[in-house]
Design goal:
Blueprint (H helix, E strand, L loop, with lengths): L3 H11 L4 H16 L6 H17 L1 H12 L3 H27 L2 E3 L8 E9 L2 E5 L7 H12 L3 E5 L5 H14 L5 E3 L4 H8 L5 E5 L2 H12 L5 E4 L5 E4 L5 H13 L12 E5 L3 H16 L15 H11 L8 E3 L3 E2 L4 E2 L2 E4 L6 H4 L6 E7 L2 H9 L6 E5 L3 H10 L4 E4 L13 E2 L5 E2 L1 E2 L2 H6 L1 E9 L14 H12 L2 H8 L4
Parallel strand pairs: 3-4, 3-6, 4-5, 6-7, 8-9, 8-15, 9-14, 13-14, 15-16
Antiparallel strand pairs: 1-2, 2-20, 7-18, 10-13, 11-12, 17-19
Helix pairs in contact: 2-8, 3-5, 4-5, 4-7, 5-6, 10-11, 17-18
């Protein structure tokens, strides 16, 4: 006869998170939300403070998990994930009271006398599905916005970053209010069970293929979504630049940010045929300077995220259409999931490396006759999550900003717009919809409720039947907002 303790262990081991379990979870969270627990300023502050405490007390565990999943160096893990989350928490704590205040709105003659305001209210019970490449940042940053806005939250971390997924389940369960904030681990079956439920908002970070599944599931319940996707983020490089600074920034932004596995990482370079050799030499110099003679063994370069992603990148490298066009790198190590920083010159447009988002350490360089041709090349392709330009030409900057549609644009650097919390971060077209960061995170999880206040005075008889020509003239003048027209109508001059 098994002991009670053993029976509990067996029961836990065989527990399945299916649609019924997901339904029960959402019901419990909705009860918490409807009881008003998450709406108070005090509750929101307490959860944000607990998140900050969680980061401060467990930074070593977090760095260890990021190294286990992705081989991230501790410095990269801290700067790109922990520090950014801490800054988001601190900003929300500082600004939350102001964010929660109703915003005064103007009224018009048609509602005189009246006043109006826009009241931010939480959606309710929200689902956050995060990605594996920045498994702490992309999990917790949206949750900060959801908590700040007063929602109950379910976080589904990526199963492709198992160490961080397990750690998030443990830490959020320990530090946050489990009656309103839950973590569900698992893979496709668990995500499917969650998507079968009715949510008040879904926030998904990942790829376009899964985003379509998420959006289709959300459509069944008319659930609004935020989709943070990716795309082929281009870098247009002019010749009238500081070459040393430009090359350092691009190399660090490509291979120093999770070895290219960043949604806003440079996907491909565009420059003129004349300038390409100079730029390539500068890239090669900085790759060696940053990562040594053998980048495959550099501790400063992350691993490829998982086996399927490695196979996908290897397929791009093995494409016959880029045979002989690899001018740097190309080495792979399947056992350690390592791919060297790789540069490909003038890959055909129909090659895999130019048709699919790379999301890895491969960097194609496209050459054009005139730098202005690069803008047309970008415009001819799906809208990217980010677009970058290096130039000192004021007119080229203006043309780029005005004519290139992207989630975000940076001039003379890459990826840094993520650090500016006064800028919205999000995509457009196939690179996503909706935005977050800073107050935009609060707004992403808030419904802006319109409220109009009136007293019982100032009622206009003209609004009520029976309708007459005189009433129609008066209402037209009121709705036109013409005080002179109202006076003329009242005195019989029109």
């Amino acid at each position: 006869m098994a002991s009670d303790e053993q029976q509990v262990k067996n029961s836990t081991a065989t527990a399945v998170f299916d649609s019924d379990a997901a339904n029960s979870l959402v019901k419990d969270l909705r009860s918490t939300f409807l009881a008003g627990k998450t709406k108070s300023h005090e509750w929101r502050l307490s959860q944000l403070k607990s998140l900050l405490k969680m980061l401060d007390e467990n930074d070593k565990q977090i760095c260890d998990a990021l190294f286990s999943d992705l081989g991230k160096h501790e410095m990269e893990a801290y700067i790109h994930e922990i520090a950014m989350i801490r800054n988001s928490c601190k900003l929300a704590l500082k600004e939350l009271k102001d964010w929660m205040k109703p915003e005064k709105a103007k009224t018009n003659l048609g509602t005189f006398p009246s006043s109006a305001e826009i009241v931010p209210e939480p959606f309710g019970v929200v689902l956050v599905i995060s990605a594996w490449n920045y498994p702490l940042l992309l999990s917790v940053d949206p949750v900060i916005g959801a908590i700040a806005a007063g929602n109950a939250v379910v976080l589904k971390p990526s199963e492709l970053a198992p160490a961080m997924s397990s750690l998030l389940a443990k830490l959020l369960g320990k530090y946050l209010d489990n009656s309103a904030i839950k973590v569900v681990e698992g893979a496709v079956p668990e995500t499917t069970a969650l998507l079968e439920q009715k949510w008040d908002k879904i926030f998904y970070t990942g790829n376009g293929r899964v985003a379509r599944v998420v959006m289709a599931a959300a459509a069944k319940n008319l659930t609004p979504v935020v989709l943070e996707l990716g795309g082929k983020s281009p870098v247009l490089v002019d010749s009238n630049i500081d070459l040393a600074v430009t090359a350092k920034r691009i190399v660090a932004g490509k291979w120093g940010c999770n070895n290219g596995q960043a949604c806003v990482g440079p996907d491909y370079i565009i420059t003129t045929k004349q300038y390409a050799p100079v730029l390539i030499d500068a890239f090669k110099h900085n790759v060696k300077k940053f990562f040594g003679d053998d980048p495959m063994n550099s501790p400063d370069i992350s691993r490829v995220g998982h086996e399927n992603h490695f196979a996908r990148l290897k397929k791009m490298l093995d494409d016959d259409k880029i045979s002989g066009k690899i001018i740097l790198g190309g080495q792979t190590d399947k056992n350690n999931r390592k791919i060297a920083p790789t540069i490909v010159l003038d890959a055909p447009e129909d090659s895999l490396i130019m048709s699919d988002e790379i999301f890895g350490p491969l960097l194609p360089i496209v050459t054009v006759e005139k730098i202005e041709d690069g803008i047309e090349f970008i415009r001819s392709r799906p809208k990217p999550l980010a677009a970058y330009l290096f130039t000192n030409n004021k007119q080229l900057k203006k043309n780029f900003v005005n004519n290139v549609s992207a989630g975000g644009v940076v001039i003379n650097d890459v990826t840094l717009h993520l650090m500016v919390d006064t800028l919205p971060f999000g995509g457009v077209g196939e690179s996503g919809m909706g935005a977050y960061h800073g107050k935009f995170s609060f707004d992403a999880f808030s419904h802006k409720k319109a409220v109009l206040y009136r007293g019982f005075y100032g009622d206009a008889p003209a609004r009520y039947p029976p309708y007459t020509p005189g009433k129609l003239r008066l209402l037209k003048a009121i709705l036109d907002g013409s005080l002179f027209g109202i006076i003329r109508t009242l005195f019989g001059f029109s």
